[in-house]
Amino acid sequence: QVFDDEGKDVTPHPLFHSDPNAVVPRQAKLLASSAYFGATGSGFLSSFSMHQTSGENVSLGSFSRSHLLTSYHFSDVQMRQEEIKEELTKEDLDRRVDIYLTETETIWILDMPSVAVSVESEDAGRVLERNRIYVDICKNRPGNDRFVEKMMQTINGAAKNKEVQCDKIIVEDKGMMATSWDLYDSFNVLEIKPTSKAEGSRATTGKSSKPLTTTEHDQTMSVSSDRGSTTSSITISESAVLARIHEEEECHSEAILTSENFQQDLFFMERILMENIFQPKLAAYRQFPVLIDPDLLSDASGTVAAVKEANQKEHDKEKKDKEEQKETFLDPSILSDVNKTLEEIVPPRLERLWSYICDLTAGHSVSSVAWSKVNPDLLAVGYGAFDFKEQKKGLACCWSLKNPAWPERIFQCEHGVTALDFSMARPNLLAVGMYNGSVAIYNIQSRNDAALLDSSKSSNKHTGPIWQLRWVEQDRGATGDGKKERLMCISADGRITEWLIQKRLDCTDLMKIKRTGSEKKKLPGEKERKSEAVISQQAAGMCFDFHPKDANFYLAGTEEGHIHKCSCSCNEQFLETYRGHKGPVYKVAWNPFSTDMFLSCSADWSIILWHQDSQTPMLTFSSTTAFVHDVMWFPKSAFVFAAANESRVEIWDLSVSILNPVISCFASPREKFTSVLFATNTDCLLVGDSKGAVSVFELQNLAAPNSNQV
């Protein structure tokens, strides 16, 4: 018996059922042979049953043709098989017999549901709805508390390797060359008729209009006389000649492209094109009148004349109308005074001219900018991130005013550039400070981008980022030989150093900035608090600025929010300490006109004006809730300074207002301003941002500075 998974009996039934009341038949001759059933046939036939493999039961009536009737006596001793032959009458043959075919129950041996459904099927809509619900569930899964991720361990099936051996695949390269004559002959092969030997000889000696074959044209050229006495062949290899000409042209063009004269010509041509493109912007930068192309004026002369004529007619008509009216108007002198007043009350603003940016600098944050001390058109820009998590390779680029589209020099740095400055005694030297604490000096006259000197081998190098460096002229010698230029740095490791430029870079410490506690008054009855444990005894230095008249004194801003006044002659203690900021001090700047005053900006959203003789802030400026990264005095006025917040750049004029800036320029939604720098020879401001652009703005309608007021 055979049972399915549900316990149903699915055993196949035989088509023939023996009648126990039937007559015992005789042994059939067909099954009498012992060779067919074997010597011991009782064991085999005891389990033998006749059934139809297709599972269709056939009901038979009394109709029967010459067939076999088998009788079994289930005995282990004997077995009889007899054949009964029935004779059918004519009535039996003519009688109608009904045969019914029915299906048995289906046995499922392997059931694999389909993963694809036809679009035209009935279940297509239901399947599409289930897929849409599943996609919605996958979208809503992130951040949903209803979904929990669990892990389970499964048993991996044993891997089975099967190797097949086959014959080695033989690869063979073949090449051929086809000329234009080959293509012509192949295309016209059907038009060419076969000729006999005699016709071929006549075609050789006489004139023929038949096209030359490939062999005759490409390999040899036969020249024969009418008599056919002499024949000479000249071998021509056109492919070799063409290849040689192509090689000579390539070598010649390569020599032209790599020649110094061609490179210099391209350099001059690029300068000319850039000056033509940026001519109106450069003229506005240098405060020159903007010139208009005379060709454009000549082309538009007719249009201009027509416009002038129309304006003149309108003016005459208005004049007549005014004469006809009897009403009196204001006196012309009063109108002129009003016009002058309107011109005076036009608010100052920043007009953007262009931006120093290219594909190489896009995506890098501008960390510092510096003008060349000798060439006012040469600008150095450092690119590097201030945050530790955003660190990547840095850049130091030198931009020229004559080509705002691409830098003149590009120096690749392994770490982010945080500070840079040009030398005054040797204008070709550019000092660069990096985030890892190293200092490098580059020669901008050379096209080699390798550093001239590097502090990587110095045993006394900085261990923190260098936030500011500057070339300072100092006179420390007692012999009076003159001032000597020195390179100063301030770092996050709490050291202010002076670098000695010899065969290699080495430094000495000017000051180690020690931590100072906040001065809080003790209330009556209050117990003394225990001092907090500090990780380091030194405070991280953020910025410095040397006094414009006496370079032996300088200010140093720290991460604690304090500003220390120090002297190069004393490296043990501070001269003064100014406490007013609640966050790191990002920049300090002496006033170039009133040398007793200085500005400081901080991460506490404020800008403070100080007097060096007072430890109390004189004025505090705070216009927005954003970090103030940079501040700089205007070189033409003692009242004007610029500040770079994260969200906008501001121009303050203390002679106009001490509460609000006179100009505010907002940044784009996804960029932040990081640095500001005034131009030395014009009324322009440079602003660096976090996207790698240094934008040039023109200061318009700003009040003229009064040199008598300080």
TrEMBL record:
Compositional bias of kind Low complexity: 222-231
Annotated region described as Disordered, given as residue ranges: 198-231
Domain of life from the UniProt record: Eukaryota
UniProt WD repeat ranges: 578-620, 621-655
GO cellular component, one term: axonemal dynein complex
InterPro entries registered for this protein in UniProt: Dynein_IC, WD40/YVTN_repeat-like_dom_sf, WD40_repeat_dom_sf, WD40_rpt
SUPFAM superfamilies: WD40 repeat-like
Primary localization class, coarse: cytoplasm
Gene Ontology biological process: cilium movement
Compartment(s): Cytoplasm, Cytoskeleton, Flagellum axoneme; Dynein axonemal particle
An example molecular function term from Gene Ontology annotations: dynein heavy chain binding
UniProt keywords, alphabetically: Cell projection, Cilium, Cytoplasm, Cytoskeleton, Flagellum, Repeat, WD repeat
SMART domains per UniProt: WD40 (SM00320)
Pfam families: WD40 (PF00400)
Biased composition (Polar residues): 202-214
Listed name of the protein: Dynein axonemal intermediate chain 4
Organism: Himantopus himantopus
The organism's taxonomic lineage, starting at the top: Eukaryota, Metazoa, Chordata, Craniata, Vertebrata
